[in-house]
Design goal:
about 260 residues; alpha+beta; eleven-stranded mixed β-sheet; 4 helices
Length: about 260
Amino acid sequence: MPRSCLYVGDVMHRRLRPVAHRFVYRVFSLLVDVDELPALDRRLRLFAHNRRGVFSLRDADHGARDGTNLRHWVEQACAGGGVELAGGRIFLHCFPRVFGFGFDPLSVFWCYGADAKLKAIIYEVKNTFGEQHAYLVPIAADRASDGALRHARDKLFYVSPFIGMQARYAFKVHEPETRLAIAITETGPEGAIMVATHRGERRALSDAVLLRAFLAFPFLSFKVFGGIHWEALKLWSKGAQLHPRPQPPSAGVSL
C-alpha cells in the first residue's frame, strides 16, 4: 500500500497523427491519503489544505468541486459503480496549487478496500474550459505478470481541441510505490493518435523536500497551464485541425 509522498519526474506527450509533435516537462506531484490531509496541513509548514499556502490542495478542486469531503465523494462514486470500499484508504495523485494557483489536467484516485487491496481507480480529467469528467474503473484481482494494470475506456469528454471525440483510451498503470508510472494511449478510427506518460521517483513528504521542490519548480502551476497553451500553439502552427467542443457528459462520473 502506498503512503503520502511526493514524486519528482516528467510528463511526456507524443502526438502521432495527423501531425507529429512531442514534448517533455520536468514536474513534481503529490500522492496524499485523503484522510491525512488535515494532519498534513498541521505537520507541514509549506503545505495547506483548503486554505492558501506555498503549496495547497483544496477539496473544491476535485470530486464534486463544491468542497464536498473527498472520501465521501469517492465512496459514493465507487458505490455507484458497484465497488464497496468499506472504509479502505483512498489516495489522490495530483499537482498541488502553488501560491493559490493551479491546474491539474489529470488527477487519479487510488481506491483501496478494507483488505488493503486496490478496488478501483478514478481518472479525473479537466480541460482548459473549466470542465471536468471522471472515469471510474473497477479493478479485478488478477493483473499482468509485471504488476501492470491495463484497461480501456471510450472517450466521453472533450480535452484537446485538436483531437476529436471518436477515440478510445488505453491505460497502463502501476500502483504508486517507490515509482510512479502512468501511460495512456489515445486511439482513433485511423489508429494511435497520442501517447502520454507521467513517471516519477518517490520522495518522503516533508518541509525540506517541499522546499527543494519549490526551488526546482517555482512556477509549477504556470508551467503546466502555460505549457498546455504553448504546445497547442505549436500544434496549430503545424496545421493541426480544430474540432468543435461538445457539451460535457451530464453525469460527472462514467463507469
